[in-house]
Fold this sequence. Notes:
The structure holds two protein chains of two kinds. In chain A, helix 11 packs antiparallel against helix 12 (271-286). The two termini of chain A are 39 Å apart. Chain A is an all-alpha fold. Chain A is built from 15 helices and no strands. By secondary structure, chain B is α/β, with parallel strands linked by helices. Helix content of chain B is 39%, strand content 25%. Chain B contains nine helices and ten strands. Chain B has helices at 49-56, 78-87, 103-113, 119-132, 148-161, 178-193, 205-211, 229-234, 239-249, and strands at residues 9-20, 23-34, 38-42, 64-69, 72-73, 88-91, 166-170, 197-201, 214-219, 222-227. Chain B starts with 8 loop residues before the first strand and ends with a helix. The interface between A and B is medium-sized, with 21 and 27 residues.
Amino acid sequence: MRDFKPLPDLPPPTASTGAVGWARANLFSTPLNTLMSLGAFYILYIALVPLLDWAIFSANFVGNDRNACLTGGACWAFIGNRLPIFTYGSYPATEYWRLDICFALLVFSFGPQFFDKFRYKMQLGIFSLTAFPVICFFLISGGSFGLSYVPTDKWGGLSLTLTLAYVGIVAALPIGIALALGRRSEMPVIRTFCIAFIELWRGVPLISVLFMSSVMLPLFLPEGMNFDKLLRALIGITMFQSAYMAEVIRGGLQAIPRGQYEAAQAMGMSYWKSMGLIILPQALKLVIPGIVNTFIALFKDTTLVLIIGLFDILATVESAITDPAWGAVATEGHVFVAMCFWVFCFSMSRYSQNLERKLHTGHKR
Amino acid sequence: MENATSNELAVQLSDVNKWYGDFHVLKDINLNVAAGERIVICGPSGSGKSTMIRCINRLEEHQAGQIIVNGIELTEDLKRIDEVRREVGMCFQHFNLFPHLTVLENCTLALIWVRKMPKSEAKDVAMHYLERVKIPEQAEKYPGQLSGGQQQRVAIARSLCMSPKIMLFDEPTSALDPEMIKEVLDVMVELAEEGMTMLCVTHEMGFAKLVANRVIFMDMSQIVEENNPHDFFDNPQNDRTKLFLSQILNH
């Protein structure tokens, strides 16, 4: 009989050979490849040089009117000059500090979530979903605690965009979960209601939802009864997005094997306990990409409120670029808006990837 | 192994019938299981054996007949279903561990949320049973990091944590590699020796010979034959049983 001796583990072969080796292998491996690489470099060169020149080297960064921007480069001075309006809208300038506190709180409640070593993620998450919106509401709206009242038609700019998006996100997720569970319910009344709700809202464009909320809804309300335009827009956006959210989450619920429900039942768990402790944590984890996709869509859809006369960041910039005190600054304005949206959407995307990696419990990686 | 002495009935099925749509999946099932008795149920696939034991903890509903578990009759009444599930533990073919929780959390979850046990106490109970299935060192791992045999042992420990009076096993070794079957069967044999009432759907005939008080053979939605293991294997009465045994034993 021969003894079985396992072979020793060997280290994997090293693949990297530095930047030159990489370029030789990937860019200049054959004559055709070399030709194509050089062509690509040339196209990059003719596109990037004027762009960098416009955006940075010939750009103007300081100034108070069109005379500061005569060099032909980008007129960032315009953005700098109007930054308060873009950020705070027509909120009274003496009360800017209230919005500043909210911005600081926003950074404080989400910044630490990006660090793996931070230990109070759960508590901070609960804070940002519950206390944070309430604090911000009292701060921004005022009318109590000695703060002067600021009506919602003074709200605007980036702070309005963030308000719309934040409320939409925080409200659409739980409503979406409830609708998804309801649509899979065995009780016919609840199931029918949820299906009708989802299909109704999903089948209507957001623009018409907003129009209806601002133009048609008051017609159906009794004389003299009216509620805030911003509130109506918020309800419209929330309902609309929660229908989408419900379908994303239902996708996750359907991916959970039947055995998980059975194991929970066999251990004597009630419907709510098995959903809350076993099914939903797994289902939500599965559909994080879909959820974040919906959040990002919602964030960008908030720009549609400009059609009902709310001045979010895009609408504020749109009206500022027509100011005759500045020349043709439409490009700068739109680039600025695009950058603002990109920063927030990209952060959400990074955060979701971070979350996915952390919640991964299998052994394949 | 000795026959169970207690006459108290743990599970009582009388004229149980069940249909999946038009398909009659259980036909007039009558079965009495005394406390401490160990039953092995075998039969070809689709014969209704899994459905039968799944009716005992109401994972499946029966449409006619009577099922009484530990003196409680199973009806639509959710309270009774809860009471029965409190007494009955179950292990599945595919383990059905919760992949988002660690092994320890899998075991303590129901103790904390269903039995309202304090966390530290629940942890002690869970570690006790993990030691019994010989994997206390895996407590902090996730199910996805364990082998199939280890996962099934965790599933057994998870059920035992709820201190059930009756254990149901639904083909616990069918999804396992040959080398892992033994480690799971060893745990089940130990459990049997301690006097647990067990109903096992399995094709492990060695296990049946070793621990079963009775072997039940099912085919075509009904109980074809039941007997003590000795007579069941050496002297089957029914032709269908003989054919089945010749197919599973002769290769």
